[in-house]
Design goal:
The protein has 210 residues and is mostly helical. Helix content is 58%, strand content 2%.
């Protein structure tokens, strides 16, 4: 039974990586990740900073966590706004594709109920096709962002992503993601290959000025 559940978890994880997941969590410092995964992580990180900023405002704290990218990546305020806009648009499309993936995964799980079959599920071709669609879409938003930054700034930003973002991304196995557990209730978002909660080091953001 444990083996069968593991295969189902791998099936779900295959949506986000397109291949079977690695055996254990690993740092990406010495391994180059596909750019679609890197920029998806970056967009999710910006979204999480926006959420933290909103939560801070609700508690009376005037702190803009999104200014991390202005300080660390050398973005101007207008370039930082462009990053926010592109990230938001990309994640909205990702959520739509994730919904489709969740439905496919749900249908496959229904075909392999616990204790009723020992057959191992194979990765549906529809799931792999969705992965390709999502990767292509993320890269399109990456290109849109770089175009908005301009030639010089885009070169610096790509170097920043390579030096600062990629090394802080952690690869997780499907078994490490609570969203993949058959015992957990269905969630709206598909399981993440790269953990958007991974901290990216740097000094605390400065307080926003009026």
């Amino acid at each position: 039974m444990k083996t069968r559940l593991t295969l189902i978890l791998i099936l779900a994880g295959a949506f986000v990586i397109g291949t079977l997941a690695p055996a254990a969590s690993q740092s990406t410092t010495d391994k180059k990740l596909p750019e679609a995964h890197i920029y998806l992580h970056l967009f999710k990180h910006m979204a999480s900073l926006e959420k933290r900023t909103e939560m801070a405002k609700q508690t009376g704290k005037n702190i803009d966590f999104t200014q991390w990218y202005e300080r660390e990546a050398g973005l101007t305020p207008s370039q930082n706004e462009a990053l926010k806009t592109v990230a938001s648009a990309c994640l909205a499309e990702v959520e739509r594709l994730n919904d489709q993936a969740e439905e496919i995964i749900r249908q496959v799980r229904a075909q392999y109920p616990p204790g009723q079959t020992n057959r191992a599920p194979s990765v549906p071709p529809e799931l792999l096709e969705l992965q390709k669609t999502r990767d292509t879409m993320v890269l399109r938003y990456r290109d849109e962002l770089l175009a908005q930054l301009g030639d010089d700034a885009s070169v610096r930003f790509k170097k920043f992503v390579e030096d600062k973002i990629q090394p802080n991304i952690k690869v997780i196995t499907p078994g490490q993601s609570r969203e993949l557990s058959p015992q957990q209730p269905s969630v709206k978002s598909a399981p993440a290959f790269i953990d958007p909660k991974t901290p990216i080091t740097g000094p605390l953001p400065r307080k926003a000025t009026n």
